[in-house]
Amino acid sequence: MTQEFKDTNFVSISDIGFKKALVALGIIADEKSEITHFEAKAYIGKMNVSGFDIENLSEIAIFENITELDCSNNALKALDLSRNKALKNLDVSDNDLEMLDLTNNPFLERLDCFGNLLKDLNLSQNTTLKHLDCSNNRLEILDLSKNTQLESLECRWNVLKYLDWKHIHRLQNFNFDINIQRKTEKRKARIGESKVLQSEEFSIFLEGLLKGIKRIDKKGLLSYNPQKNDDLQRRNRLAQLERYIFY
């Protein structure tokens, strides 16, 4: 009885941008309408609320059965997805997020969170993740030791000091571009123990066997040093290695 009462309760959508998005999606009739818990839980599949100037998305919690959420290009500073456990695809790019808790989203396969203010990104519970774009944040450490299914990784334009991918063997696309704080600063980003990519700004050490990699984009690097590791060239299917020089 209690659950039925909760399901029939109407929920007031606090953010006008989110309400406009729900109208555009046909979930509510107009901006004066509300939605019940039951109706929200019945909504499955993808929810695209990108570009509606949303500042508060707290009511996303009632849409607990959605599998895809695109809330990119808004003005979000916080986002609670702890009740959206069914999510497989998530795009929160181009917001103002300083923190992103995904520990309750174990089925995530795709995550786009570029263009935020993230200093930390805990992906230890997201073991099914296949695509990650965390570019243009403030990340110094990126631990991918639990993300063994990764096929595509974009982590350019951060301030990475350490990147752990030693258990990733399915990677096909890798883009780290320039990871620096200041152009005058020497920086090292530890990814591994043997392959070295050298630039004026930092050195990046590639660890792991990269067996399936087909493309590496290393924009900003001034030299590529394959010494002490013939495994990368011998054991992968590398088809393209891009090199651009920035001045």
Automatic annotation (TrEMBL):
SUPFAM superfamilies the UniProt entry points to: L domain-like (SSF52058)
Keyword Repeat part of the UniProt annotation: yes
Highest taxon of source: Bacteria
Gene Ontology molecular function: signaling adaptor activity
Entry keywords, A to Z: Leucine-rich repeat, Repeat
Alphabetized InterPro entries for the sequence: CDIRP, LRR_dom_sf
Record protein name field: Internalin-J
